[in-house]
Each structure stands twice: as structure tokens, then as C-alpha cells.
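Page 42, continued from yesterday. The earlier attempt failed because a stray header line got pasted into the input along with the sequence. Redoing it now with the clean sequence only.
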Amino acid sequence: MSNYTVPHWERSILITIDTQNDFTLPGAPAEIKGTAEIVPNMKKLLDAYRSHHLPILHVIRFYKEDGSNADICRRESIEQGAKIAVPGSTGAELVDHIRPVGAPPLDENALFNGEFQQIGDSEWVMYKSRWGAFYQTRLGQFLRDKGIDTLVFCGCNFPNCPRTSMYEASERDFRVVLVADAMSQVYEKGLQEMDNIGVYVCHTDDLVKVLESNS
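This time it went through. C-alpha cells are written below.
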């Protein structure tokens, strides 16, 4: 890898994308196939980051029941009554396996206001209104303020929100890591595309070992 793209693990943050009940649980209203299966690997990553006191950010979606904040591809169905990740609902919450012990419920008012809700030691949640985590959010400044230059991505549905967020991170000169077996809907051509823009692609156990060796 280039000196400009190699991960700086000691300055990294683990970012989970949209791993909420309504997108993850079998039979959920907007279930993304394969997400429930990668949650155990996500938990391994989260446990490793927590044990090494490295920061974690959970990026989530909310859809107001009137559809006013929804992507245009989903707005009509929500206007017609589909209920997906409704603020304040159980479906909008992070799946239990990735929540830190004692985490409070999501604070939709603070999150809609662009705040980063702290739910654990060095662990936050932020809301995004579209595919990309940087779109109309304060994420870039949040990361720079904390001296973070390496973003490690895992979570829900590679083709949409994770891929968009990784391109956004790359164009802002962050070093980017994709944990392939801790993200749903990953496919080979997509991995090649990530490699082409300097994304470091790895697997859960390899990353856990790297963190242990650097501790």
C-alpha cells in the first residue's frame, strides 16, 4: 500500500453503518439479507476496539412517518404507510449485540440536530439523512477534532451507504479500511473497486490480531 493509504491503527475509528433492528433482524420491514449473519464478526471488532480504548461511531438512519426526510427512492412507500426505522421505535435502535452495556436509547432530537450522542466510553451515534455519512453532517470535523485519520467500516449493505461513505472518506483524504466479512452484501467486483481507490480490505480476525500486536 501507499504511505498515504496504509492504515494508522492507533489513530483509527471503527464505524458501523445502519446496523439497526429494521435492517438486520430476520423478517424485519427492511431486512437486508446477510446482515444478521455478519453481526457476530461486528461484535468481535467492537469488543477489540472497546478493549483497546479506541473510538467507535455508529451511523444510523431514521425515517419520519411522513417521509419528509427519506431518500426519493423510499419516500413514496413511506408516505403510503411503510414504517422503517421510525424515530423512537424499537426498529430504529441498534441491534442488541452491538450496543455497549448500559447504552441509553437513541435520542432522536439530539441526533436530528446533528449532535453525536455518546452511548459509551469513546463510543457515539450519529444520524445521516442520505447514503453517505458525510452528507450534510459534521462528521469530518468530528474526526479531525479527535485526531482520527483512519476509518474502519463495517455494517449493513455495502452497495449503498457503506460504499458511498467510503468514497466520501477517501475524497476527504482519510485512510479507509473495509472489513469484508463484517459487512453485508459485499461482492468481488466491489472489493476490486475499493482496492482501486486505496481502501485497505481485510477480515475480522486479521484486524483483531493487528490491534493486539499494536497494543
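Notes: The longest strand covers residues 175-183.
Reminder to self: strip header lines before submitting.
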